[in-house]
TrEMBL record:
This is DAGKc domain-containing protein. It comes from Chiloscyllium punctatum. PROSITE patterns: DAGK (PS50146). One of its GO terms (molecular function) is ceramide kinase activity. InterPro entries: ATP-NAD_kinase_N, CERK_C, CERK_PH, Diacylglycerol_kinase_cat_dom, Lipid_Phosphate_FormReg, NAD/diacylglycerol_kinase_sf. One of its GO terms (cellular component) is membrane. Residues 191-341 form the DAGKc domain. One of its GO terms (biological process) is ceramide metabolic process.
């Protein structure tokens, strides 16, 4: 028996999957009581590769675990049979013809996608503001009890939203039982962070970092009961310096609100701190670096946001906040950059000499222009058409499956990253036992005049280049893609650049070569007077260094390296990739 009741619509804000929610006396199974909740021991913490298989719809291949709780509750004015198992919450209409307005007969949310559960006290008048609506009820009791489940909802192109669905019943005990059971399941999600340290760069990108955090991220963290120590940076390297000294034991993760440069600061602080704690000397180029325990989350608020885009598939702050909340974890490779046995920087996305180095140098003079400084400087650099002579020596990644020309990109749960990452670690240990000569034989050298030398640890996808500089690069396979763009005409270089923005193969040009490598070195033909030993190396590589080479149209000056958006002063560098040194609160690009 249903009677008409009036109730206010919920406040606008987070999206409701089921817009209007009705109250109903809880009908319990099998005889009016809820199904028993069996006590469970917490599952061990699992990484992305294991967790992804748990997060799929229950209709997929995994066997359905036994229910923890089953009740008849009302959702969107319709009675549903609601079932909770260890892995999924689902609600099935008891009157299929009047199923949800979307026409879906069976709705479900994996437990790993649930953000929060809250008891929603609503009486006949309604606590929340909004317009009045007529609603039915099976009960004459004016006090209704409801609980709301907030969960991840996938929307367009890798975007995630936080949706909510409210379940009503008039039995307070039943409501409590559901809230308790759901919260117990959330507590078992061992990878979720509880306490974070958050750094906000107020000057990155369009200077919206603080606003983005306050308006979009903080309310979600609050909903998910995540507490945070928030530091709005006051100067460059504030975050890095803080991380090197601070007590990090109490945190479950670090969040960078800003762009690639801000992430780079946070990453440097964390990696250096980890090496310092382990007594590792970062200046030693072949040191086996110790992987970092804490995960880093990125809330994109920069100009390029390449690291976020290439690991999530979009640069949306809400999506990134949700990945942090549900505790995603994805390892990533990190390259270390040295100059003459002196540590310079780490890189996770692009190390670019020539075109991207010159663009960055020019763009730093125009920071006031915001993100459009890159287009302006990129255009100027394109017109200048400088090329640089030098030698690139590299160690090909022969043990790793996959090549930079693969048609398939790295995606969430990537098997190449999972397996080749493990194999690579083993083979790296074995390599150390081989004699140096044998190792030296594998090195290859390419000499020439280059418009750009790009080394990518990941695809480097970003809004300007949705597939990235190296579309098939892997996040965690322990390799880098080395892209050499030889001197060519402006028109050909433009053709190559345009291919960064569409689906055409940017490596399918005679003047472009690409290699998957583990290490590389660059020696410029012309170097600073102070780099006398580099000049010696140069003499070996190029013969007698000639400062007035008559046939060379290249200017005899150097470019700089663009290291994840930061400038490296030295041109002569040695780069080595460290497989899976860092972990991010992401899962890679979902298929
Ligand atoms: C005709 C259109 C060609 C468009 C080509 C677009 C290619 C864009 C590729 C972007 C790759 C970004 C890799 C990530 C680098 C980050 O670690 C770093 C820090 O955030 N960002 C940059 O260095 C920022 C680098 C931004 C570089 C922008 C370059 C824009 C070039 C414009 C050339 C126009 C020529 C037009 C001639 C008529
Ligand atoms: N309070 C601050 N004042 C000045 N500079 C800062 C401050 N906090 C951080 N920085 C520096 O600002 C630089 C750029 O920041 P960020 O990466 O956030 O923005 P962006 O350069 O616009 O974006 P992208 O790197 O994505 O292109 C970083 O190198 C960082 O070290
Ligand atoms: Ca890689």
């Amino acid at each position: 028996m249903t009677e008409a009741r009036w109730m206010k619509e919920p406040r606008a804000g987070r999206r409701r999957t089921t817009a209007r929610i009705a109250g109903v006396r809880g009908c319990l199974f099998p005889d009016g009581g809820a199904e028993p909740v069996a006590p469970k021991s917490p599952p061990p913490a699992r990484d992305t590769f294991q967790r992804l298989s748990d997060c799929r719809s229950p209709a997929m291949e995994r066997p359905v675990p036994p229910p923890l709780l089953v009740s008849r509750l009302l959702v969107s004015e319709q009675p549903f049979e609601v079932t909770l198992t260890e892995t999924v919450l689902c609600w099935q209409p008891l009157r299929p013809k009047k199923a949800s307005s979307s026409g879906t007969g069976h709705l479900s949310v994996p437990v790993c996608d649930i953000v929060a559960v809250c008891e929603t006290e609503e009486d006949g008048i309604g606590k929340e503001s909004g317009r009045w609506q007529k609603m039915p009820s099976f009960s004459t009791d004016l006090t209704l009890h409801a609980f709301t489940v907030y969960h991840v909802q996938r929307s367009k192109e890798h975007h995630w939203e936080c949706n909510e669905v409210t379940f009503h019943c008039s039995d307070h005990l039943l409501c409590n039982q559901w809230v308790k059971a759901l919260k117990e399941q959330l507590d078992l999600q061992a990878m979720r962070p509880k306490h974070l340290i958050i750094f906000i760069n107020p000057f990155g990108g369009k200077r919206l970092g603080k606003q983005i955090y306050d308006d979009k991220v903080a309310p979600l963290f609050q909903l998910a009961c995540i507490t945070a120590d928030v530091i709005v940076t006051e100067r460059a390297n504030h975050a890095r310096d803080h991380l090197i000294e601070a007590d990090l034991e109490k945190y479950d993760g670090i969040v960078s609100v800003g762009g690639d440069g801000m992430f780079s600061e946070v990453m440097h602080g964390l990696i250096s701190r980890t090496q310092k704690n382990s007594g590792i000397d970062e200046n030693y180029p072949t040191a086996e670096l110790v992987p970092c325990d804490l995960r880093i989350g990125i809330i994109p608020a920069g100009s390029t946001d390449c690291i976020c885009y290439a690991t999530v598939g979009t640069n949306d702050p809400i999506t990134s906040a949700l990945h942090i909340i549900i505790g995603d974890s994805q390892p990533i490779d990190v390259s270390s950059v040295h100059h003459k046995h002196m540590f310079l920087k780490y890189s996770v996305s692009l190390l670019g000499y020539g075109f991207y180095g010159d663009t960055l140098i020019d763009s730093e003079k125009n920071r006031w222009m915001g993100p459009s400084r890159y287009n302006f400087s990129g255009f100027k650099t394109f017109l200048s058409h400088h090329c640089y002579e030098g030698a690139v020596s590299f160690l090909p990644a022969t043990e790793t499956p996959g090549s930079p020309r693969d048609p398939k990109p790295c995606t969430a749960g990537c098997h190449i990253c999972k397996y080749s990452g493990d194999q690579l670690k083993v083979s790296q240990k074995a390599m150390k036992l081989k004699c140096i000569d044998e190792e030296q034989q594998q090195w290859k050298v390419v000499k020439g005049k280059f418009l750009a030398i790009n080394s990518t640890n990941m695809s480097c996808a970003c809004p300007k280049s949705p597939k990235g500089l190296s579309p098939a690069a892997h996040l965690a396979d322990g390799t880098i893609d080395l892209i050499l763009v030889h001197k060519c005409s402006r028109l050909n270089f433009l053709r190559h650049l345009i291919r960064h923005t569409n689906n055409d193969d940017q490596f399918d040009h005679a003047f472009v070569e690409v290699h998957r490598v583990k290490e590389f070195k660059f020696t410029p033909k012309y170097c600073d007077e102070e780099d006398t030993d580099i000049q010696d190396v140069g003499k070996n590589l190029f013969g007698q260094i000639c400062r007035d080479h008559p046939s060379c149209s290249c200017a005899q000056h150097q470019s700089s390296w663009n290291c994840d958006g930061e400038i490296i002063k030295h041109a002569a560098i040695e780069v080595r990739v460290h497989c899976q040194l860092l972990k991010l609160f992401v899962r890679g690009i979902e298929k």
